[in-house]
Amino acid sequence: MTTTADPTALLDPWGAATAGTASQLLESAADSEQVAWEFVLTTLERWGCRALAPRVLPVTAELVANAFAHAVEADGAGAYPCPVVLCLLRSGSDVVCAVFDPAETLPRRTAARGLRRVDTVADAWGWTAPGPDGKAVWAAFSGPEAGRRSAAAVMATLDPLLVQIEVFTGSAIPQLVLADPSWGVEGPPEPAPLGD
């Protein structure tokens, strides 16, 4: 699959005035971890959400590493003009980290160990039903004053992520799939839309 989207034009679909979204293009696996960490720390600091860094950083590292290892390298990075995009979205003190890659492959059993770590740290996480230009794996974090919230409560605040999904994956009907912590035993479930 090849994409026709211009990733640099899509990184800020709402314009600089939108303070609740930030995106970073990650062009190669070699420097992706360092670039991602700097981007996350800078963005959380700007948003006044630095207290979430110990939770967001390891999850970001896992999602970015998985995107390059299981999605981009499988097809060859040269096949896509935009290998991986890291997005952060903020609503109040809550933050969502989403890593977009150009492949249709969903989180797999082989990555279950790292994804179990994601499940432990994030309030909720999952992926999107793949669109013409790929998919995203996302994780949501509640601010310190809110404490850990249920997956249903987190899902109710993810409307901005639906817009990002449409922009980066080309999905006409963006769908979020909530990960079930037990899927590592049997493999991932079939995608099922949540919400509307």
TrEMBL record:
Quote the InterPro entries the UniProt record gives.
Anti-sigma-factor_SerPK, HATPase_C_sf
The domain of life for this entry's organism is Bacteria
- Print the organism lineage: Bacteria, Bacillati, Actinomycetota, Actinomycetes, Kitasatosporales
Q: What is this protein called?
A: ATP-binding protein
UniProt entry tagged with the keyword Electron transport: no
Tell me which species this is from. Answer: Streptomyces polyasparticus
Which GO terms fall under molecular function for this chain's record? ATP binding
- Record's keyword terms, sorted: ATP-binding, Nucleotide-binding
